[in-house]
Amino acid sequence: MAPHHVLRCCQRSLSWIPVIFINLVVGWSYYAYVVELCILTIPNNAEKISYLVVFHLFFIMFIWSYWKTICSRPANPSKEFCLPKVEKEQYEKEEHPDTQQEILKKVVVGLPVYTRTGTGAVRYCDRCLVIKPDRCHHCSTCDMVNNCVGFSNYKFFVLFLAYSMLYCAFIAATVLQYFIKFWTNQLPDTHAKFHVLFLFFVAAMFFISILSLFSYHLWLVGKNRTTIEAFRAPVFRNGPDKNGFSLGFSRNMAEVFGDQKKYWMFPIYTSHGDGNSFVTRLVNLDPEQIAVGLQINGKRLFMISFIPDSVNDLASFVKFKPALS
Predict the structure, then answer these.
(1) In sequence order, what are the beta bridge partners of 292?
(2) Model-level pTM?
(3) Angle 154-183/45-71 helices, nearest 10 degrees?
(4) How far apart are CA 24 and CA 21, in angstroms?
(5) Which residues contact 148 (CB under 8 A, 6 or more apart)?
């Protein structure tokens, strides 16, 4: 047991290396831009002040979203996803997988769980001893790295990518003219030359690398998919559906950033839901779901799309079909 704890301690310590590295790079970039460029190199006070004001706006938003991303604790399944005591004992004593699945299917009936494994089985975590909520996966490193990206901090992560990209773009754009002047020896060869030249290369390099990652995650947000679902379509009880969680572009954006657009740019929690259940858009009728009969203008209609979580979901996703009889 002792070696295991030692290994875990070493892994936790090593997981801080990327955090320390990023903070060192950001700290140096702050010094190089504020001191070496703005204070010591730029002669015009109006240009200097305008650069410093905009730079600090991007810097504050970048740091704020970064620390919100790495400090937000991962969401955990609620207690309702734990097996009741009797079913848990039956599950642990049972050796046959088919019988274990029958036990899980009885428990999952009352839960907001619509996805299954690739073979159609109920998703169950044998390490955490809970039925997995939709889109939930056990991460073997979530208590080691700082921090895994999941439901609780995904908005912060996307904003972190956006503000880090803007931070790098602003630095590269404003440093460019002084980079050229130092490179062509139009400015005296001082110690600021190294910082300005290196600052441009670092900012441009990080901007290009972050741009591709940010674009990819914007595409995921627009499609309402996780990185896992982008490679492997989620499997529902009626089969796989890559767009099973897509609610349309505007609603997909609201799922991550919230309904009030004035808060979208700030790294404060405004995402929809609790991470335990998600609104789904089932293309085909799920035989295990309830068909709700309605009477409108004397005609019998059936709502067959899905079981809504709220009145708004009902209004947005209700599908009606005239009765056959």
Answers:
(1) 303
(2) 0.81
(3) 150
(4) 5
(5) 74, 139, 141, 142
